[in-house]
Amino acid sequence: MYQKESLEESLKYFFGYDSFRPGQRKIIEEALANRDLLIIMPTGGGKSLCFQLPALLKPGLGVVVSPLISLMQDQVDTLRDNGIGATFLNSSLKTEEVRSRELEIIEGKIKLLYVAPERLLAAKFLPFLDLIAEKVGISAFAIDEAHCVSEWGHDFRPEYRQLKQLRQRYPKIPMLGLTATATSRVREDIIQQLGLKNPGVHLASYNRPNLYYEVQDKDSRTYNQLLKNIRAQKGSGIVYCLSRRQVEETASQLQEDGIAALPYHAGMNDEERKNNQTRFIRDDVQIIVATVAFGMGINKLDVRWVIHYDLPKNLESYYQESGRAGRDGETSNCILFFSPADQKKIEFLIAQKTNPQERRIAYQQLRQVIEYAEGTECRRTIQFSYFGERFPGNCNNCDNCRNPKPVEDWTIEAQKFLSCVARCGERFGMMHIIEVLRASKKKRILDYKHHLLSTYGIGLDKTADEWKMLARSLLHRGLLDETNDGYRVLKLNESSWEILHKQRTVKIAVSRKVTDDLISDYNPKAAEAEMLFESLRILRKQLADAHSVAPYVIFSDSSLKSMAQVRPKSLEDFAKISGVTNHKLKQYGTQFVIEIRRFCQENNSENSPGLPSTYMATLELHKQGLSVEEIAKERSLTTRTIIKHLSELIEVEQPVDLDSLVIPVRQEIIMQAMEKVGDKSLKTIREHLGENYSYEEIQLVRAKWQRESF
Fold this sequence. Notes:
- 49% of the residues lie in helices and 11% in strands.
- The chain is α/β, with parallel strands linked by helices.
- The protein folds into 5 domains: 7-203, Rossmann fold; 211-356 and 367-402, Rossmann fold; 407-509, Winged helix-like DNA-binding domain superfamily/Winged helix DNA-binding domain (Arc Repressor Mutant, subunit A); 530-602, DNA polymerase, domain 1 (Orthogonal Bundle), CATH 1.10.150.80; 613-708, ATP-dependent DNA helicase RecQ (Arc Repressor Mutant, subunit A, Orthogonal Bundle), CATH 1.10.10.1390.
- The chain has a 7-stranded parallel beta sheet, sandwiched between helices.
- Helix 8 (164-169) links the parallel strand 5 and strand 6 (175-179).
- The protein is globular and about 80 Å long.
- InterPro entries: DEAD/DEAH_box_helicase_dom (IPR011545), DNA_helicase_ATP-dep_RecQ (IPR004589), DNA_helicase_ATP-dep_RecQ_bac (IPR006293), Helicase_ATP-bd (IPR014001), Helicase_C-like (IPR001650), Helicase_HTH (IPR029491), HRDC-like_sf (IPR010997), HRDC_dom (IPR002121).
């Protein structure tokens, strides 16, 4: 067993990274202490590392329960390319392959085993599991996609319910449940169904600052709108459609228009579906057009955009599907096309459900999606409220925040609405309250004698849509609560009473502004860096094809961009790039260094990473131990300019001693703030932190954050 003095050294040795992402270190420490854990961490947040690193540091075999063959293959390929002993057992293997892998496990050559729940609990496999426990030892069971265990999850799988047998059969072996999304009800269900004992529960923020969210109204020529969007995007992308027929038609149309696209849906045969998925993962085609059957087990890190051609069925699915973009931390776009006609399609599908409770919940989830699509507030505020996370808004990375709508004071209207909720006994939903406010004469209103309430008819000055807009705003911002049982009954909370008692004002965006502008790729690299990045991508693809793996298994886009910026010309310098392990250095280092040298020679590039000489002059004075003020005085520049130099030097991994500029404890607090409010706006971060933190130190720490957001 390999053991280093610190977790950071182990992280660098096995995975090539210098520091943990927020929350990872504490989770790993608890896993090493053999504690049961429930980990809710968004896609791209580094969830896998939370069970992989402890398995490598503890004696015995780590068993990972994974639902999809493609996911197992992908993660095992990535681990093995890092020189880590990992394997999987599933139905895709021949008998002799299974026996060979089982022998490797018993001989202690494997540290991580991926297996499907059906195989794990099969009568023939359990004795082998007992043998592993006896001969090698089992360090932990990691249940990936743990939301599948809950009937309240968006992808319930009955076979996951049987996993509680693991706790009964191996009561002393720790168990970890991991998933990207889970409401409070699903979290409780996971703990109960897996039999977790006093688990450490870790809820990471759902915010992924690198994703741009946008909703576009479908126009009359929908396909042309889609084509225009695709041609404006860079890199690999996914187009999600509601039906198999539309998947086939859209993929065919894109091919006719010269776009490298392939279809993917459950109606295709296994071989064709697998082939199309592999070609997409290995960058042989740019686009996959798919139903929601595609993506759950895909570990492709460099998807640059996701377009929902049709309305998703619920917000949890939308968060998961759109979250397949930008898993490497690079800027990526998530676009949703919206048309009221899509609502009718989904309502028809819901109507086919025979269970009344399932139908009721499905209708509620659809209404929440409609509210997201029609919402005028920060998209993140609306999304995260579904999962119970309060987001302050102003993310500066969604269409509503980049094109803010006029804001008006609607405190009086909010008081009217909340007062009506109270007078109706907090027993009704949004539409009932609006009907009372607008003096409806429906039988339901009269039967409850709500036409006799003092709030009856006091809202005739606003349309029903305007009242809906207000109600949604109150719900998304946590100023009003709603039951999540399919009935959507409104409930007052502490903030509601503050509004009623005139202790809080309510301002909302009151108009919907449609824009055809697409997000551009901000923070553009220098032209030379872009050219080198493309050269390195070509080399990566050649190596990936030679090894029969996906390109991102070799190196992520983030690592390539660092190489293009820093331009290491020796193996020693190459080893310092984030994502370069000792194993990868030996496998690929020489080829990449030769390519970088060739590029620099052909383009007459200097040894510096494409930075102006003024930046390098600042760096030299910093390395001599001068303070920011002393450097500014020495160079006759403002301190603001020096901070800018140092920030950009940090981003391209130059040797800036950040600890000498911002003490570590303040760095950690600033990073925690960025985890909550994002890293795009210095003003937003400072408003969250307060006046005790300066813009200068936030800017420096943000540079480190952005560099490490791989």
